[in-house]
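Re: export button greyed out
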Amino acid sequence: MQGKGLLGQLIQNLCCLPGVGSKSAQRMAFHLLQGDKQGARHLADTIRRAIDEIGHCQQCRTLTEQDLCEICAHTARDPSTLCVVESPADVWVVDQAVVFKGLYYVLHGRLSPLDGIGPDEIGMEQLEQRLAQGLIKEIILATNSTVEGEATAHFIAEVAKKYDIQASRIAHGVPMGGELEFTDSGTLSHAFDGRRRMM
Amino acid sequence: MQGKGLLGQLIQNLCCLPGVGSKSAQRMAFHLLQGDKQGARHLADTIRRAIDEIGHCQQCRTLTEQDLCEICAHTARDPSTLCVVESPADVWVVDQAVVFKGLYYVLHGRLSPLDGIGPDEIGMEQLEQRLAQGLIKEIILATNSTVEGEATAHFIAEVAKKYDIQASRIAHGVPMGGELEFTDSGTLSHAFDGRRRMM
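Workaround output, generated via the alternate export path:
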């Protein structure tokens, strides 16, 4: 009976958001229509504008509506360190959490030969051009710690070596606040391998 | 550093949705921009259209883009039973869960004299006109089981009495699958008061 009208359509479309099931979508729809019409109008406009205007930064390939993203355009950032990540979401997360003042490069993926994703698909040519410029002293490989992420990090480290650039990998270990008892063995063995002297 | 651009705006606007914090808003924004552009465009359009076009049903006051909502316009529904609820969301929930084939009336609130919400604010005049037409035989009061919801139900039951219409209140008791141990005392005493013979 219900679900055919515009309200049903709205609920269905809200379900396409990650982590939103039909119950939350219902709540959202009623909130948009009854509570906060101005906010809803704003949201619709921003989604539209974001889709139309946001593209990739020419230098680091993250999401931005400018030619150069805010980070690349920022004059106070240190151009001698480059952090390589898999996705624009990673740039966002790292830049909010870490006191990292260098620049980024977004691969938009990871090497995965079985899926036909090789160096060309993750923008290695552009990255290599950047390494060749001689500005970069250290490259921090912050790809995910999956098999493919590790392989990608190793591949890029090899390329960096050609240009005499120091490559480092972010540390893997027990997360802050984590208990050993509930840590998986892979993470634990990384934590032991990567142990640091205290005194 | 981040959060100034269009992406930051999108994340901020998504936070206005109920149940969405900054982390989920981030995930949603990246999903909309990278994963599902077509779906995102659709979502923006539907939100806009919904705000512009959806109003209240002339008969039951629920949300609809038509003059009469689908339920009121449906010829197979039974016009002799009327279910009174507080909000359009309640209509949606009841109509999905219950095998109720009557019609609805939405109060858009509940009596709350302290907040200045009296009979006029919950559309009692229109409801009384409908009761006066003589078509309705039973009125089911499905307002929330809060103090104000109960008071509203009692008030409407009194009005229904004037027109010789039977008023009933939805049952309160232990929810299905609920355990006595974890049921609050108010609900339990309702459950005992409302007990039904089994054989």
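The beta strands of chain A are 55-56, 63-64, 81-85, 103-106, 138-141, 166-169. The button fix ships in the next patch.
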